[in-house]
Amino acid sequence: MAVNAKKVAVYVLVVFALYVIITDPVKAADYVKIVFEGISDAATAVGDFMTWLAGGGDR
After folding, report:
1. What letter would DSSP give residue 57?
2. Whole-number pLDDT of residue 59
3. Are 21 and 28 in contact (CB under 8 A)?
4. Does the pTM exceed 0.70?
5. How far is CA 32 from CA 25, 36, 42, 55, in A?
6. Residues 47-56: contacts with CB within 8 Å, 24+ apart?
7. Contact 27/20 with Cβ under 8 angstroms?
């Protein structure tokens, strides 16, 4: 049952993404930019944490 729910959720997300891309490509580009900025910020935060941890965790 859970597998079917995952398939439906993925299908709905793909259809929504295609709809947004087709109807408003500028807004779709903005969404992609926001997502990649979020991923970049998260990766930077993890890197900063690992650097702090490797340094002994002291300020």
Report:
1. S
2. 66
3. yes
4. no
5. 10, 6, 15, 35
6. none
7. yes
Contact yes or no for 3/14 (Cβ under 8 A)? no
Give the position of tokens 């959720």: 9
Contact criterion met (CB below 8 Å) for 36 and 30: no
- Start-to-end Cα distance in the chain: 49
Q: How far apart are CA 56 and CA 59, in angstroms?
A: 9
Helix axes 2-23, 25-54, angle to 10 degrees: 120
Query: For position 11, what pLDDT does the model report?
Result: 95
Distance CA 24, CA 38 (A): 21
Which structure tokens are listed for 54?
């490797």
